[in-house]
Write a structure and sequence with these properties.
4 strands; binds zinc ion; alpha+beta; 1 helix
Length: about 80
């Protein structure tokens, strides 16, 4: 790589501005290769991880409720 490559910038389709290439990653999109800065990628991934964790906790809660209902249905009149 030429030394001048360190000074190259690319257009970030997320921020709609130019960043130094070394702070960016090339992303393959449906419309071709695009440059996007690492900061925006990590921010998006962090948001997604939080949403996924939230979604999983909701799913687990609903699953626990469904299990309770299933047990109630199987044993509607528990022996005393
Ligand atoms: Zn950017």
């Amino acid at each position: 790589m030429a030394v001048s490559a360190a000074l190259e910038t690319a257009f970030c389709y997320h921020c709609r501005t130019h960043h130094p290439v070394e702070e960016m990653r090339q992303i393959a999109t449906r419309s071709g290769k695009r440059w996007r800065c690492i900061r925006s990628i990590e921010a998006t991934q962090g948001d997604r991880a939080k949403r996924d964790a939230f979604g999983k906790s909701i799913t687990a809660m609903h699953q626990a409720e469904a299990d309770d209902r299933a047990r109630t249905f199987l044993h509607p009149l528990p022996h005393r």
